[in-house]
Amino acid sequence: MSKPVYDLEHHAKMAYGIGDPQCFKGKAGKPKFKEGDRVRIKDLPDIFYTRTMTYTRGAEGVVTELVYESPAAEDEAFGNEDTPEWFYSVKFMQKELWPEYSDTYSNDALETEFPERYLEAV
User: What is the DSSP string of 55-87?
Assistant: First the structure.
């Protein structure tokens, strides 16, 4: 069995000993949002791959944490690791995502991560 061949700049080599995505720490610039900011998820076109769930697009939520810096999944899938960006954890109330969600569970929430490009200020 042959070993995988990685380009010297591939993040798997860059992350050796420090972990992924820590190898991109300090490379995304100043974050656009901070904890507590209300944001809307943009409905951007995706070509072949994205980790931004369709059911969150257009929804509004609150940034709970700046999680890490990394290339967006849609960039990384095609080998573009030159443009890391901030990832944010965003919390949504379930009732805001699904209007038919039972009022019995009005405090239920969903929290997930998004690359900065998918967020806009509300």
Answer: GGTT-EEEEEEEEEEE--HHHHTTT--S--EEE
Nearest Cα to Cα of residue 80 among 70, 68, 66, 69: 70
DSSP state of 4: P
Q: Are 73 and 51 in contact (CB under 8 A)?
A: yes
The answer to the question of residue 24 being in a domain is no
Q: Is position 2 within any domain?
A: no
* pLDDT tens figures, 66-121: 999 999 988 887 888 889 999 999 999 999 999 899 888 889 999 999 999 999 99
State the burial class of residue 82 (Cβ atoms within 10 Å of its Cβ: 0-12, 13-18, 19+). Answer: exposed
